[in-house]
Specification:
- By secondary structure, the first copy, chain A, is mainly alpha-helical.
- Chain A folds into three domains: 123 residues, Up-down Bundle (Four Helix Bundle (Hemerythrin (Met), subunit A)), CATH 1.20.120; 102 residues, Orthogonal Bundle (Helix Hairpins); 36 residues.
- Helices cover 61% and strands 0% of the residues of chain A.
- The two termini of chain A are 38 Å apart.
């Protein structure tokens, strides 16, 4: 098995296991791409079946059909899991990896349901059934276009965390004040501080269900102030993520050049001298 | 008909058909512009009539008037369609083009209604009547200012597709969890996973109708997390489209020049040398 | 009255009329600034009185007090209007200007109410009373900080118009489809196309009152598509206005230099040659 | 006590009071950091207790437990407050500072409740109890990551104030019009101008509770116009704050250099000559 290094060009003599590994885990050959597309459709189909099972009108009339499809998808995913376990070299590492566990959880529930048909296990069965919904995470195997989105969110992660903490602090104080103002009355939704905070989040994010709404004059004034505050604050994450995406999409990237004298990073592409200490920067050819 | 090439200056000797073609299909003469404006008003009027026909209080008292206007607009649009068919050279290509079909669908329903006055065709009639609403698409003939909007959305199309897919994945998982938490209770709106996903979309887009809202404590906590997540995620499309529009509106466009030496794309307009390899770039006059 | 030119420095010998004109119409002396501040507070107070008059619980118990304040404000504004008419030179031009009409409408309603105490004029009285609310526009006399906001909105005016037209077209088509799907049913809010379009606007702007909401499966799917579309489209005005404000706030303005050869406008500050035709641009000193 | 200057390196001989001051008020040693972390958790715990006390189902069954925790936190915060008062040099200045008052208010309510157990002081007790909620502000002692957020909001403060004033003016006029149109009818929520303005704020911020919604045709048209306006206006704070954050995050800062000849401000970092008058700019080293 000395020919196992991936960049090897002549694949004619590859053993079956090796070729399957290429098809299942990589996406560089036409066979591997076809496998990816087929699997994506299978996942989408299996998710649709789980969804429809929860719709009463559909479930009553097409129970057998859904059951059949469910078993079809389960068997296909079982074959896929078995193949993955067979062809992968570090079996244990795969089995304990995130996608390994997701792949296992995609097939286990259907088998477990056979043993749990007693009436006492209804909730367990429902949880198991819905666990199959997480097959959607299997799609992560086959998606690489979402990288820019992930990197933009990652870059602004710590700033969004601070922002969310600030929002929670505002919501806590506002929720407490609203509970104080509206709390004592009958027929109001502000029955406790956590409930008032839930209302605060519904309001500051501009969702506004309307299941809880202020009824007193002072409560309405406070709510108005909070909405207008939220209106200004909503601009903060937009600014953060927007700036990151703008940098991501912009064709002019900042220089990666570092000043040899003062270690300053991030120079303008047309700068010849460090803007922080004035010493000569390395030429543009050096940063390629 | 050798004078049919459009840039011909002397239009005095043009035959009627040629002159009509100019007026109907182009917008470069005062006659053609007047035709465009009249047609835009006719379309707006005909749409208004279709709308008012659906309002019961108006329809009962002004049925004859609306009927009259409807036939007036239909006859005018029929004349327009006939003229277009007469003057256009590639008749078949126009008839099967997008706007050709829209133009035909704008007149057909009114005529078809004559044959469908029986009581059994009520739904067909209603669909036909509303089909005339799509005359709004005829306006596309006469709009060119919306180009910047279309190009900004087109440029960010693939990124928005990835973003919408990510939102759907989040909504699927959240909807499943909410169905699990809230689903078993009486009087709750979370009756199935698709229903929960509908609630998830209503929530994450901050629309928040309030027809479905969580009632349990865990459900409310999960919904709060989802709203705050949506609050951060709403910044993503804003960042994407905003960055594209900013580029579109910005007077400083990035160069489309490519370095002949290292193939680096995206130079500053004031750069004379490639910032990646230092070789001379083609002059700005070459990229005009 | 040859000393009436404003930049005259010695104001000691100015007649009263001249000095009042300075105080009332300009804001460059301490007296004029004090006048502005007092007037702003009077306007705010008079608006508060109009508002409180509509609140039943307040109006019943404090009718006389509100009446008194109303007459106080009306007399003060009458004095202000008389002074303005006296000191201004082009009396007719002021009387017919926007702020001249607003100033007159701020005092007329209270006087007219004396003659309209008959029971038959109730609606006219209410309209007149509320007309005084527009005194808020008088504040426009005294606000100059909002210029950046106005200029940012003005610069993006035509683009926002195109955007709003596109939104209306989408809402028309969506509203028609929703009326088709949900319209026939009992208990649904989609009773006509205009009503469905109202729902469409409530939905696409993410306001989401919940007074009208889809109840059928297809209606919910269509509404979901519309919400997600709106989620992407909401980024468009943000991008447009955001880009304008960014340019407004940015310390680096684009050059106002115009190429003498090809009339190209909007060069990079560091460009020496026209990027469109290559001819030499005027030096930076020329554009000061 | 001549060794009290903070940058002194040898802390071995420091008296206890000095060392405690370091731990409590600074964050530069491992002991001080541990103190910060412990205090953050104590604050979070005490807030949770105050919240849970307002939830009836929890309070009824775990009253004693919550009472116990409440006293535990109060005693710990009392010790903290005493230590702070002991180690700080300018005792009076700390006691009257913002955080000094917050620290005192965090412990007082629990003690005051002992004397206010009579049935006549129920509201006072509730207010006192909830006052402890503001312990969340104590977290401000220990947070420094939120600086970028504060500075971005501060930089756009005056612009946001102008924006909020403009929104209030729009809401006043819209609210008055809606009261005029919808006010006379039965069963409508527009009972007064302030109420209509509350609805206006709920609508323009796209919160949309739905507790008040227009019912007349003209009211719905006006509300639609308002929503679409708000849709365009929501972009304004996003643009303002977004631009500030973008500048904050951007590696390329605009120059603060001012031309000595013509006072022009805001040069490109790579400019060596003033773009307005052509005279030599101070070198980049001068602006460091």
């Amino acid at each position: 098995m000395q020919s196992e290094s991936p960049p090897e060009p002549n694949r004619e003599n590859e053993p079956l296991k090796e070729r399957l590994w290429r098809i299942i885990f990589l996406s560089d050959t036409s066979g591997a791409k076809a496998f990816d597309v087929v699997l994506l459709w299978l996942i989408a189909g299996s998710i649709l079946v789980v969804m429809l099972e929860t719709v009463k009108s559909v479930e009553v009339f097409h129970r057998e059909l859904l059951k059949g499809f469910e078993w079809l998808f389960t068997i296909l995913f079982t074959i896929e899991y078995s193949l993955r376990m067979w062809v992968v070299r570090k079996k244990r590492r795969y089995a304990l990896s995130f996608f390994g566990i997701v792949d296992l959880l995609s097939i286990l529930p259907t088998y477990l349901e056979i043993f749990l048909t007693g009436s006492g296990h209804l909730i367990v069965i429902r949880v198991l059934r819905l666990l199959r919904m997480f097959r959607i995470l299997k799609m992560g195997h086959h998606m690489s276009e979402a990288d820019f989105l992930v990197s933009a969110l990652k870059a602004s992660r710590s700033k969004i965390a601070v922002f969310l903490f600030a929002v929670m602090a505002i919501v806590s104080i506002e929720g407490t004040l609203m509970y104080l103002i509206e709390g004592g009355r009958e027929g109001t939704g502000f029955t406790s501080i956590p409930q008032s905070m839930y209302w605060g989040i519904v309001t500051i994010t501009t969702v506004g269900y309307g299941d809880i709404a202020p009824v007193t004059v002072i409560g309405k004034i406070l709510a108005s102030v909070m909405m207008l505050t939220g209106f200004a604050i909503i601009a903060v994450p937009t600014g953060i993520v927007g700036a990151e995406i703008f940098k991501e999409l912009s064709p002019v990237k900042m220089d990666g050049r570092k000043c040899a004298n003062c270690q300053h990073l991030g120079h303008d592409p047309c700068a010849s001298f460090c803007k922080s200490c004035g010493s000569r920067l390395p030429g543009p050819t050096d940063s390629a």
